[in-house]
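Sample pair:
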Amino acid sequence: MKRFLFILLGFITLGLCGVCVVQWQREFLLNARIDEIIQQLIAENKLRIEFEEKAMRFEQEIARLTTLRAETEAALLDATEQVQLLNDDQRARGYSIAVLMNETVKATAELDAYKQLAGEGADALKGRNSEVTAQNAAIEKANANIKQLVEERDSAITKLNARVLEYNELVEKYNKLAKER
């Protein structure tokens, strides 16, 4: 009977050893799985931080582009206002030119009359011609100013269009990144 009890005790001991081995193996697998999940969590946190940094950079870029756009729009409004003022000025000068032309025609008629009455009409004609020449020079200068302002306005509009395209591309990129999150 003693022998039977020793054998039974040996089997029980071996059974307990087997249970310990099974528990150790299960604990080893669980710890390996926990380590794997921790590594995945660390990688996901790194990606999240990178995306947050990118989003912050994009927000700063959007703010910068918004500021540039506002500045460009303000410059465009100023240029448009100046062009409008020059157009109004040109219209007023056009009216003045018409009035001056009428005066010139009248003066020419008077000059012809003076020529007939007196032989000194040539000097008066030269004086009047110099006035008309000065007026023509002023008109040419105004035209040059208007052309320059129109070119500046066109340049500002071209720059604004380019900025708007860049802004739209940036917004599309930002939207794509936001959708991927």
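Residues 2-117 form the longest helix (116 residues).
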